[in-house]
Structures are given as C-alpha cells and as structure tokens.
Amino acid sequence: MSKIKRAAYLIKQVGRNPGQLAAGIALVVTFAAGAFADMQNQAAHHQQERAFVGQQLGEVRARLEAEITSGIQLVRGLIAVIKLEPDLNQERFEKIAANMLGDEPLLRNIAGAPGLVISLMHPMEGNSAAIGLDYTKDANQREAAMRAVETGEMLLAGPIDLRQGGQGFVARFPVFLDEKKTPQSLWGIISTVIDVDTFYTASGLDDENLAIELTIAGKDATGIGGPVFYGSQSVLDADPVTATVSLPGGSWHVAAIPRKGWSTVPPDAWLVRSLLFLGGLLVVVPILVAGHYYDRHRADLRELNRRERQLERLSQRLKLALEASSIGVWEMDIETRRLTWDSRTRELYGIDADAPEPPLEQCQAMLHPDDRAAARMAFEHAISSGSRFETECRVTDRKGAVRWIRTIGAVSHDARGRSNILGVNWDVSQDIELKSRLMEANKRAELRNVELEEARALMEYNSLHDSLTGLPNRRYLDQRLSAASDENGTAPAIAALLHIDLDRFKEINDTLGHAAGDAMLVHAAEVLKASSRSDDFIARIGGDEFVLAITGGACEADLARLATRIIERMRQPVPYEKQECRFGVSIGIAFADSGTRDYGQRLLIDADIALYRAKKSGRNRHEFFTPELKAEIVNGKSLADEILAGLERGEFIPYFQPQFDARTLDVTGVEALARWDHPERGVLAPDTFLKAAEELNVVQMIDRSILEQSLFQQARLASAGVQAPKVSVNVSAGRFNEPGFIESLGNLGLTAGKLSFELLESVFLDERCEKVAGNIEKLKSLGIDIEIDDFGSGYASIVSLLNTRPSRLKIDRRLVMPIVECDQQRQLVASIVEIGRSLDIRVIAEGVETMAHAAILRDMGCEGLQGYALARPMPSAHLKEFLCRERARHIA
Questions:
Q1: Higher-confidence residue: 891 or 86?
Q2: How far apart are CA 112 and CA 343, in angstroms?
Q3: Residues 591, 493: contact at Cβ < 8 Å?
Q4: DSSP assignment of 384-425, as one string?
C-alpha cells in the first residue's frame, strides 16, 4: 500500500514540476547530439582532406598528360613529312625536326630508325652515341620497339638509362608508308626522348609548395600493376587517393597522400565541442525556467477559457447580424500586421474556412495589379493619419474568379492601447460590371480605330520592304530614286549607287536548298548593313541582288575601299548546318549626275552596266561605270542584234582554204571557215564576232549553217565535173553535244570519206565523257572522219588520242610558225609528228607562211600542209577556179 502511495506521490510531483523532467530529457538529448556532431565533424574533416588531396592530384595528373601530349604532337608532324619523303637524309631530317621542335625544352632529341636502325638524329650534338643502334638486336629496347611495330601504335617506355647519358622516357612511333600498316610498308621507327628531370619539373612534381606526397607506378606505361619509378612504395600503403594518367599504349598509376600524412583530429575539434557545450546550456536552462512558470500559465489558461466562452456568446450574436447583411468583417493589428477574417470575408476572397489567416502581403497580392497600388496607398494613409478609408478593388481567388469588393475601414484602439483597423467588405461586382460594360464598349471602338491605323501602316511597310531580310525592296528604291530626281523633293540626294550581285548563289540553292539560300541572303544583308554608314540605305531588289545607295559625299577611292571591304567580308565562309557555304559578290558602281533629268533611274542603269562588266571580267570584283564602258556595252548590244539579224538573212558563209599533200603539193582537201558577209563592213573573220556569238549561244546555229553550205558547195562542184575534195568543218563543243545532232546528219545524204569534223582539244579530256565517245563512234559509222584542231594548245593527251583514234591531227599554227628560226620549237613539232605516225594518225600543219616552213615540215614527215604560203581562204566562187588551175598545173 505504501508503494502505491509513493508512486502516486511521484506522479503528482512530476505533474506539478514538469520542467525538471523536461530538463533531464533535454540534457540527455543534448549530450547525445554533441557526441554525434563531434563524430560528424571528424568524418567531414577526413573527407575534406581527401578532397583536397584529390584536387591537387587531379592538377598534377592533368599536367603530366598535357606535357606528354604536347611533346608527342610535335613528333606526329614529322611522321607526316616522312610519309611524303621516305628517303630524306640527315640534313633534311635535322632541318625539319629543328623547325618542328623549336625551343621545346621537354624533348632531348628525335631519332629516325629506317629499317629499325637509328641513322637520323636531331640534335646530333650530345646524342651521336645513339647512331647505329639496332632495335632488333638491343636487348634493352628490342621488346618495346617490336611491340610498337606489332600494334602499329605509338608506345611510351621508361624511364630508361640512355646511351648518351641520363634517363628519359622514350616514345616510339612506328611509321608505315600506307594506312594498311602491313609489315611490307614499314619504314621504321621515329623515337623521341623526353628528359626525365625536365618532365618532372614541367609537371610540377618538384614544386616545394606542393602539399601532397606523390608516387607514380607503371613503368613502361604498364598501369596499376607496374613497378614504381617515382616516389615511395609507402605512399601506396597509406590509403592514398589515386588517379590514372592515360598514355598512348598504356597508363601510369598515380597515388597521393598529404605531405604530413593523414590527420585524425580536426583542428577545430575543441572549438566545436565548446560550442556544443554552450548550446546544451542554452537548451537546458530555458527549459528549467519555463518549467517554473508552467503552473502559473495553467492558472492563467483556465481564466482565459472562461473569458473565451463569454466572448463566444457575443461573437455568435454578431455573426447572425453579419450573415443577414452579407457583410464580411476583418480586423488587423497595426503593430504586428496580423489579419483576422470572418467567414464572409474569407468567402469574398476565395479562402477556405479551415485555412490559416493569410498575411497582409498575400492579401494585397490577391488584388488586381491595376488596383494594388491605390489600395495600398489608401490603407497606409489611414494607418498613418488614423482616419477612415474606403476602396473598391478587384480580387482574384485561387480558382481565377474575379469580383469587385468595396472595403470600408477605420483605425480603433482597444483597452490595452493597441491600435487596430476594423473594417467591412461586401461584393459590388454587379454594379461595377454594368459600369465596365459601358466603358469597355467605348474602349473597343477606340482600339478598333488604332488597329486599323496600325494595319494600314504595316501594309505600307511590307509593300516597301523585303520580308526575308527586312531591307527596303525595289519599290522603295524606285521611290527614293524618283524622289532624288525631283527638284522639289525633300529626300537626301544620292551621290552614288553600288549594284551588288551574289556569285555562286545559285549553286548553294541547288545543292543545299532554298533554306540555305535564304540564310546566305540574310548574312549578305547583315554584311552590307555593317559595311554601310547610317545615312546610306540598302535595298534588296531581286533574288540575289542588292543596292547600296550612298547619300553623303563620296569619292572614287572611298567607294573602291568600301567595295573591296564588302567583297572581302562576303567571301568569308558562312557556317550552315555543319557545312561551310562560300560565295562572292560582283559590284557595279556609278556616280550620280544630278544635272541629268531623271538621273535617279539613270543611276541604276549605269550601276547595272558596271555590274555586267564586273561579272564578265571574272566576278568577285568591282567596276566603276564610265562613258567608255557604256559605249562598249551599247556596241556589244548592237553587234549582238546584227548577228541575230545576219543569221536570219543568211549572211554567215563558208570560206574554203585548201589543204595540200606535203610531198606532191596536191590538193587533198579544204577547210570550211566561217565568215560574216556584213552588208556594211564587208567580210569579217571569226575574231570579230565569235565571242559575241558565244555569249548569245548561237555558235551552234552558225556551225550548222556552215556545214549545210559546205556540203552544198561540195555537191555543186561535183555536178560541175570538178573533183570535189574532202571538206573539213569546224564543230563546236555545244554543237557536238546538241540533242539530235547525229540524227540530223543522217538526212544530209553524206558520202563516206568526203566530210571531216574538226573538234577542238577541249572536247577530248583524259576522263572521257560517255556521250562524247558515243557520238564519235556514230560519226565514224556515218563515214565522217574526226580531226583534232589546234593540237598542242589545249587538253588532249596520248590517252585521249588512243581512246578516240582521230583520222588527223592539225598542229596549231602558233607551234608551226617559229620552226624556221627556233630549233627547240622545231623539235617539239617533230615530236608531235612522230606521235601521230606512231599512232597511225595523219598530221597536218597549219600556219605554213613560207615555203621554208613547207620544206621543214615535209622533211619531218608531216603529211599535210595548210597556210598562206600555199593558198588563202577563198569564197566558194573562187574555189572552183582554184581547183581547176591546180588540176591543169599537175596535168601539164
């Protein structure tokens, strides 16, 4: 019975003094927490120490790899040279090695061992002892050298003792003369010696300030299982931090510990323990004090509960009144800014009834941003002045619903002198909504007017600007040029115009697509913007054409520098989807002549003419407009018009130049040469019209006309009883590759052996076109012989002659004319004749200007002659008389 009473007494005492129990529990918990914190501090210190060692070791490992790699990369360049020059001698080797190594201190020397015997060395001084070392016989280096040859990869050995003294790492590079790396292609070994001491110093291993002790294992790049060659084995036995140094053909194993060894006690251990002790006191003492006041607090709590019940009765009455009026009530302590809301206020703000009271900042954040500043200002003014305030604000709840709430509040003071704000809220959304509808209708009407005006301005802007680059377009340019020509205009005067056209833009579009082309156009626009002045303007007037208008003063030198700068920037490669696009620009430049009527439009025409000259002169350049250039363009256009008219009127006729047997001087054939029987300028040679005809792409039409007229004249001579010789007709590459060309010949009624086509060497490249080869075979089947014209001045080779097997070679007149005076030129022509004879091809020489030419060519074995010394080109009417005279002369 006494034990039960004693237990009841203890329970009662504990109930009366709960602070003592709490203090005891706090003391135990604090002690346990302190012990745990001390253990954690020791563990954290150990981890920090290992992390520091790991960081230091990582830096050393990076320097080791960097120093090895930098030395090796220099040697790889020498290997590339040896593959190109496998027979280089010591002088060449030393020169190349010296250029590559420069002042590199790490590499002691570079040795070359063709056939696995060292015979090349740089520098020779101090390293000559290594000359003659045979890797296949040297016991110290044979195994590593053979392993490099077998693997085909560079291997790093060492450190080893060197013949020339000292120690070093030896990097051996097997050199194969082709990429298959078969033993038969082995050139030998290139080796370089990395000085051990220099390497250790460059890698920072000898740094006195290094806070760690290092050991490196893996001699000969054998990795973690290899022997130690730097440092002490004891480091490996002391739980070190390790890292691997990656090497070509292997690795090194690096281990590190702090220079003074691992520490077991953190330097701040006693400080931490003292802080833990103080922290325990701060926990236990307040608990003891709190326990003292616990009983008094319980008494106060009973009194508070009584008063709360009384207050609850009063609150119930107020709640009924507020529910009937739909008004929410709130209160805020001015000092603490703590809010108290009733259920109606919570409902108005969309806050759950069981949610905690929101802070003032959250309440203000629920207000609409447009109303927030005004509401805060009215609220703060009421607090500072102690006056009444009234606001209407929009509130957004968590569900996104918006309602208008009118708030009225005033500052009050309670019995304790504390200041509060007591206020009421009610929903006025319907009143505000009606007012808002009227205002919104008016606002929409005003906004519609603004949108219409902006749309008009945007349409006007789009009509004057390029959608891709954002630059002004051709319409904008025309307006500016028209304004510049207007005497009463206000636009700035245009001093000069640069007409810019992109070169090779079509190739980019065709190969990479229009997206790439668009990217290049945008890039070109950016280059032009960066190159122009703020007063100038740039316009895109076509697919790949731009115009840069200079509105300020400018001289020719300034514009030339500007054009050169644009050309240089445009030719820089432009990256696009992992590819580099390259294009250039051609620029035509024209200065304005403000004294000319409509000079703005005239300026664009002049710049276009200059651009035409720039593109015609080779592209990627600039040209200035000049009156002479304009006259040339006008004359060129006039000549082109006359050529087209001449083709329609049949003014292009054949002239015939006879060809003679070199020994008998008998006529063996005639060459049909194109002439233009101009109605005003007389008979014109091809050099006056051929270039313009090529630009007009009408050379094929001229060739066709000359062929048809030559065949007609040949038939006409035969019908007159004159022996019609073989006719040779020039055929251009365009005519030769023209669709339906072979088929059109089948309708001409050709006689085998009476017609020969002269083709320029440009048709006969070494890499034969299947279409060309096929056309040649078809011509031969029609009985048409093939001749190579102007042989020796173009692209034909022995291979092309073997492939095409022409009937005759015509030696270019520029090679023939100097043979009378020049022995070297005579030997060259003789070589061509000998080539023709060896291939059973008849050789004809053009440009026979004198009988001395004829005699020399005859003695060389040349079979045919053609030139002014024997006969000049003549019209068809004179050809008949010439052939009759020649026949009569030989009969007599």
A1: 86
A2: 96
A3: no
A4: HHT--EEEEEEEE-TT--EEEEEEEEEEEE-TT--EEEEEEE
C-alpha distance from residue 678 to each of 306, 335, 641, 683 (Å):
132, 112, 13, 6
pLDDT one-digit tens code per residue, 633-689:
777 788 888 889 998 999 999 999 999 999 999 999 999 999 999 999 899 999 888
By C-alpha distance, which of 357, 337, 436, 449 is closest to 394? Answer: 436
Which DSSP letter does residue 663 get?
Answer: T
Q: Which of helix, strand or coil describes residue 492?
A: coil
The helix/strand count (H/E) of the chain reads as: 28, 30
Q: Are 658 and 871 in contact (CB under 8 A)?
A: yes
pLDDT in tens, 529-543: 988 888 888 999 888
pLDDT tens digit string along 143-159?
878 888 888 788 888 78
pTM score of the predicted model: 0.45
Q: Where are the alpha helices (DSSP H) in 429-513?
A: 429-463, 474-485, 505-512
**What distance lies between CA 754 and its chain's CA centroid?**
60
Is residue 567 within 8 A of residue 622, CB to CB? The reply is yes
- Retrieve residue 138's tokens: 């040297």
Return mean pLDDT, the chain.
Answer: 82
The 8 Å CB, 24+ separation contacts for 236-245 are: 238/262, 240/53, 240/215, 241/50, 241/53, 241/54, 241/57, 242/57, 243/54, 243/57, 243/58, 243/61, 244/61, 245/61, 245/64, 245/65, 245/68, 245/216
- Please confirm whether the linkage preceding 248 is cis (ω < 30° from 0): no
| Structure token pair of residue 313 | 């009765």
